[in-house]
From TrEMBL:
Pathway: Cell wall biogenesis; peptidoglycan biosynthesis. This is UDP-N-acetylenolpyruvoylglucosamine reductase. It is an enzyme of class 1 (oxidoreductase). GO terms for cellular component: cytosol. The active site is at residues 172, 261, 370. PANTHER family: UDP-N-ACETYLENOLPYRUVOYLGLUCOSAMINE REDUCTASE. Its main location: cytoplasm. It comes from Ornithinimicrobium cerasi. Residues 23-206 form the FAD-binding PCMH-type domain. Keywords: Cell cycle, Cell division, Cell shape, Cell wall biogenesis/degradation, Cytoplasm, FAD, Flavoprotein, NADP, Oxidoreductase, Peptidoglycan synthesis.
């Protein structure tokens, strides 16, 4: 484990270097954990000292304040994929260390003929972060394949195993994330009560993908919805969709200097959705386009598209960006806020507020940020 020693204050690099948005000042203290034991020790030491704690994996879902972080940052670099069980009948059980790069895990699964996470190709970040916000894309979510998660419980001071139902997965949410946002969360919490050590996935041994459940992906593959295709074809089709939207990291492309989708898709009651339709009709005309609607859960709520609302509220692709501002919307996708090369966290949040407030004024829907804001408020 590497970190600061005693005596002279160590100067750490800016946290911008550890995040895909590439903004944020330095940490008061920074520790890199390469083993599970080091990870537990670093978290336990910070909590025992009463220091603010930020655990960083791939940094793809973080926006850190320009002033930095006034506590301990633990960078998770643990590695390893173990397969305790694999059979044609029982499936594949793969246990992945929290620090493994997520897309490397998807590649490993595709190469070994394990189906279930191929539609999650190209998503940046670490494996340990995936259960926190129930990462999903193109018709798949990790909730569909996660069997269990081993965590360090910062309150009980012990290693625990949480099974699928324990995690209370929902759209971009879990009990892990709730421990940062819920009524019992301490002010400014940016690290869950349970720090992920490893994730066990239950996958299917097959060379074919799970049924394609996303219309644009099916169109790109030239197949009908519900069709299964070779795993490699599914992965390449997903990557093509993501590249088209600027969602595959590329150091030379500022459209990818982002946290991916900045806002979650709103989930509304039928009454709230009716109000949105009325506002859309007033703004775009009775014969104009209608907002997308998808069933959200068993409670009758409806999910609509944040990207659609942003665009129809007047924030087109490239908003801010094409005006030469330091931060702005991607030129490829209205849902991504991007750093054009020299942006500060304050610049990113300025654009985010403009978009959020503009959508609320137009349609009565207050968008919610997906990235974790560290030392910042939207």
């Amino acid at each position: 484990m590497t970190g600061s020693g005693t005596g002279t204050r160590t100067a750490y690099p800016p946290l911008a270097d550890l995040t895909t948005m590439r903004v944020g000042g330095a940490a008061h203290r920074l520790v890199t954990a390469t083993t599970e034991a080091e990870l537990v020790e670093a978290v336990r030491d910070a909590d025992a000292a009463g220091e603010p704690l930020l655990v960083v994996g791939g940094g793809s879902n973080l926006i850190v304040a320009d002033e930095g972080f006034p506590g301990t940052v633990v960078v998770v670099r643990t590695t390893g994929i173990e397969v305790p069980h694999e059979s044609s009948c029982g499936g594949v059980s793969a246990t992945v260390a929290a620090g493994e790069v997520w897309d490397d895990v998807v590649v490993h699964a595709v190469e070994h003929g394990w189906s279930g996470i191929e539609a999650l190709s190209g998503i940046p970040g670490s494996t340990g972060a995936t259960p926190v916000q129930n990462v999903g894309a193109y018709g798949q979510e990790v909730a569909q394949t996660i069997a269990q998660v081993r965590v360090w419980d910062r309150v009980d001071q012990r290693v625990r195993t949480l099974f699928g139902p324990d995690l209370e997965f929902s759209y971009r949410h879990s009990v892990l994330k709730e421990s940062m946002l819920g009524p019992d969360a301490p002010p400014g919490a940016v690290t869950p009560r349970q720090v992920v050590l490893s994730v066990t996935f239950s996958l299917r041994p097959t060379e074919l993908s799970q049924p394609i459940g996303y219309a644009a992906l099916a169109t790109g593959l030239g197949v009908d919805l519900g069709t299964r295709v070779p795993l490699r074809d599914a992965r390449e089709a997903v990557l093509e969709q993501r590249r088209r939207r600027g969602m595959v990291l590329d150091a030379t492309d500022h459209d990818t200097w982002s946290c991916g989708s900045f806002f979650t898709n709103p989930i509304l009651t039928p009454e709230e959705m009716s109000g949105v339709r009325e506002r859309v009709a007033r703004r775009l005309g009775a014969d104009g386009p209608a907002p997308p609607e998808f069933p959200a859960d068993g409670g009758g709520r409806v999910k609509t598209s944040a990207a659609w609302l942003i665009d129809r509220a007047g924030f087109a692709k490239g908003y801010g960006t094409l005006d030469g501002r330091a931060a702005g919307l991607s030129t490829k996708h209205t849902l991504a806020l991007t750093n054009r090369g020299q942006a500060r966290a304050a610049d990113v949040l300025e654009v985010a507020r403009e978009v959020r407030d503009g959508v609320e004024a137009a349609f009565g829907v207050r968008l919610v940020n997906e990235p974790v804001l560290v030392g910042l408020e939207l």
